[in-house]
Amino acid sequence: MTDHFPRMTGTAFTPDWFEAAVVNTPAAERRAASLGTRRTVKKDWQAAWLARAITCIDLTTLAGDDTAGRVQRLCAKAKAPLRADLAAALGLEGLTVGAVCVYPTMVPHAVKALEGTGIPVASVATGFPAGLTPLPLRLAEIRYAVDQGAREIDIVITREHALTGNWAALYDEIRQMREACGDAHMKAILATGDLRTLTNVYKASMVAMQAGSDFIKTSTGKEEVNATLPVSLTMVRALRDFRDLTGQWVGFKPAGGLKTAKDAMNWQILMKEELGTRWLMPDLFRIGASSMLGDIERQLEHHVTGRYSAAHRHALA
């Protein structure tokens, strides 16, 4: 796996960079709708793009009935995301996913199962998914997950701050979360389905990056609307603006509702066209998913054999 990009330092709170921003929603929707039709990737190239997508997956289980056994099975899939015969046929032995993402109490099980692999454990924290527990408890949860061995922390923002335009409060809160993460990388979940407008999404993205987020992430997966291409387009344009203003490269993670190999292709095309090839590496791009991996494996089996197998023939994450 590619080494992480250096930790982001963030900036001082600078509302001048975003307060006057207005996102043209119809234009964003038109641009997003064109992504899957403007670029065609077939045969060996498609297989290569799907293999790249695997390396960027944060293989995730965030269910109320998670157990140590389920996490161990998830980690086994993370270490060997393709069936051995397919990996050999494609020359992809040793391929792994980008990370395994679990709840804080499941972190020790994941750390033990992934020992010696180099695959990082990511943990959600800060009262996921609502993020409405008292701030001291949210910060303590971050520290707990890091103490248990999590190398990446997926925090959730307080949506009220974004909805009421209290951007200074949002900045201060995320900044404290960033400090609580210590050496662990921090992904800021914006819960974009709750933010109502693409303009709010852009502004929240800029504030999260100013506060030092290493990644910005679309969704918890628990909102009514999760990752969409117009939302993702808005966020990657914010990434590009922030890079141009500061020279800092912040990562992007779409999550929630991404289930198919086609989704993997569409979001990679978005990254390629808007930000370039460097942003397709796992230190700058992750996909929060579980069932997507099974569909990618099915498409790669078709590439190797010329036949589609039933979905149940591929182990679910």
TrEMBL record:
<keyword id="KW-0704">Schiff base</keyword>
<comment type="pathway">
    <text>Carbohydrate degradation; 2-deoxy-D-ribose 1-phosphate degradation; D-glyceraldehyde 3-phosphate and acetaldehyde from 2-deoxy-alpha-D-ribose 1-phosphate: step 2/2.</text>
</comment>
<protein>
    <recommendedName>
        <fullName>Deoxyribose-phosphate aldolase</fullName>
        <ecNumber>4.1.2.4</ecNumber>
    </recommendedName>
</protein>
<dbReference type="GO" id="GO:0009264">
    <property type="term" value="P:deoxyribonucleotide catabolic process"/>
</dbReference>
<comment type="similarity">
    <text>Belongs to the DeoC/FbaB aldolase family. DeoC type 2 subfamily.</text>
</comment>
<dbReference type="InterPro" id="IPR002915">
    <property type="entry name" value="DeoC/FbaB/LacD_aldolase"/>
</dbReference>
<dbReference type="GO" id="GO:0004139">
    <property type="term" value="F:deoxyribose-phosphate aldolase activity"/>
</dbReference>
<dbReference type="Pfam" id="PF01791">
    <property type="entry name" value="DeoC"/>
</dbReference>
<dbReference type="GO" id="GO:0005737">
    <property type="term" value="C:cytoplasm"/>
</dbReference>
<dbReference type="InterPro" id="IPR011343">
    <property type="entry name" value="DeoC"/>
</dbReference>
<dbReference type="GO" id="GO:0016052">
    <property type="term" value="P:carbohydrate catabolic process"/>
</dbReference>
<dbReference type="InterPro" id="IPR013785">
    <property type="entry name" value="Aldolase_TIM"/>
</dbReference>
<keyword id="KW-0963">Cytoplasm</keyword>
<keyword id="KW-0456">Lyase</keyword>
